[in-house]
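quick one: adenosine-2'-monophosphate bound model?
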Amino acid sequence: MRLFVAAELPYEMAEAMGETIANLRDCVRGRFVASANLHLTLAFLGEVDAFRVDDAAAAMQRACEGRGPIEAELGELGAFGSGRRVVLWQGVESGGSLEGLASELRDELDRAGLSYDAKPFLPHVTLMRNADLTRIVSLPTAAVAQGSIERITLFRSHLAPDGASYEPLETVEWE
Ligand code: 2AM
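yep, here:
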């Protein structure tokens, strides 16, 4: 099964992102992420045998032990790629706490012998894919908001032609 670990967004942040998505709809063509699917990926594991789900959950648990709430704030819009197939995202700032969590989680996954995409962690939430930026002069200003992140979830991703859907398998909460 295709797995990843992510933080879901606190309500205030999800709401602000919904506003930004509504503004983007007026000016950019592409595939928007449904509001229920907005998330911040900490580690993308990819294909994993079902019997290893418990090991992934235990690694998440260890990475979250003794952690306090992560105070986070939405940052600027950013883009991966260019032309008509841009991934448009909003950055999330936390004074390094999300980076610390992602790094501990990845260390625990290493210890459990679970592999993941080792691209450097850049805290962001994808808002749209296949964005056509070829004729866009400027993007709308992104709405900002603050919130407290206190849980992470192991998701199973189901790929489908009309977009992926994400099934929560295990959640670790620390507050
Ligand atoms: P993205 O939104 O920036 O593309 C589920 O696919 C989640 O895992 C997405 O948030 C995606 O990030 C992230 N992810 C990280 N590495 C990935 C990879 N190699 N393939 C697919 N998704 C990846």
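The chain has one domain: 2-173.
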